Amino acid sequence: MREEILSLKNQAIAQISAAKSAEDLEELRIAYLGRSGKLTELFKRIKSVPSEEKKLVGVLINEAKNALTSLLSERKNSLKESARDWFDPTIPGIKPPRGHLHLVTHAIDEIANTFAQIGFVRVRYPEVEWDWFAFGGLNMPKDHPARDEWETFFVEGLNHPKFGEMVLTPQTSSGQLREMQRVKTPPIRMINIAKCYRRQIDVSHFPMFHQFEGLVIDEGISIAHLKGTLDYFARNFFGKERKTRLRPFHFQFTEPSFEVDITCGICEGKGCKVCKGGWLELGGAGMVHPVVLKNGGIDPSKYTGFAFGWGVERTYMMKSGLSIPDIRLLYSSGLQFLRQF
Ligand code: PHE
């Protein structure tokens, strides 16, 4: 029995010394010292040992038990130590990722705030809309060739007896008639910022983009008010020294119609490589057509108004001087791109 005890003890020492984890140690503890562990079993056999050997065997087993117990706890501590080696509490922690607003959301906020300063109220109207609001009521009857400009998406199978088919709004001008119907009696000072959809995709077009549309209707509103509003926007959004000009153009829903240009931010209107002639094109504007006023339930013999509608993405890029090589990047959800802003 003495041999047996010693060899069991040596075997246990070898295994405990080689253990690699706290779980291994615990397994070994149970295997040797547990209730039916190998050493415990030896204890149980003491009663069958001849009496002259009993005392010695008892001492040996106890000694083995103490040795294993202290070796186990020693190994346990040293495993803990080495686990702590790679933990350096002085290293700065890893910050949880923190997002920010999308570039276009920033642009929308900024545009809305600039117009809010001069009393424009931000509104939003349906982006899936009846034809009449998007075209018909804006003086573009069905089959009018001007509609081609707007590359429209149609929603199949929906037809309103009065308002016609359903479309994805190709322009925020669809909000003009909705606003007239809502307010009923002018004054109206609306800024409608919304998504627009057109069947176009390339480096400078995306099927979904944003426009902001201004609409002012009151007694005695003239082109001078339009020009004043555009100049205010140019100064406050683009910079003090920027100026606008109106160029004659054509839209079915405004008369007269204009395209609005702004002096180039690089050469201040003198002409440079970027702008060529000193001016950059912002977008459309004009005096609300009397037919559109009538369609909106407003008396054109009493009230006049102006409207303008431009692309948010384009306007913001012109302000920030960002040269984004492909507009599709804005909506690609690529974090590498978006994190830059
Ligand atoms: N809605 C026109 C467009 O999408 C722009 C515009 C708005 C023109 C308001 C005149 C008045 O191009």
From TrEMBL:
Keywords: Aminoacyl-tRNA synthetase, ATP-binding, Cytoplasm, Ligase, Magnesium, Metal-binding, Nucleotide-binding, Protein biosynthesis
Any one Gene Ontology molecular-function term assigned to this protein's record: magnesium ion binding
Gene Ontology biological process terms in this record: phenylalanyl-tRNA aminoacylation
Keyword ATP-binding tagged: yes
EC number(s) recorded for this UniProt protein: 6.1.1.20
GO CC terms, sorted: cytoplasm
Free-text comment on the cofactor: Binds 2 magnesium ions per tetramer.
Reaction it catalyzes: tRNA(Phe) + L-phenylalanine + ATP = L-phenylalanyl-tRNA(Phe) + AMP + diphosphate + H(+)
Top EC class of this enzyme: ligase
Highest taxon in the source lineage: Bacteria
Cofactor names: Mg(2+)
Residue ranges annotated for the Aminoacyl-transfer RNA synthetases class-II family profile domain, each copy included: 115-318
Subunit and interaction comment: Tetramer of two alpha and two beta subunits.
Family to which this protein belongs: Belongs to the class-II aminoacyl-tRNA synthetase family. Phe-tRNA synthetase alpha subunit type 1 subfamily.
PANTHER family (UniProt xref): PHENYLALANINE--TRNA LIGASE, MITOCHONDRIAL (PTHR11538:SF41), PHENYLALANYL-TRNA SYNTHETASE (PTHR11538)
Protein's UniProt name: Phenylalanine--tRNA ligase alpha subunit
Source organism of this protein record: Candidatus Woesebacteria bacterium RBG_16_42_24
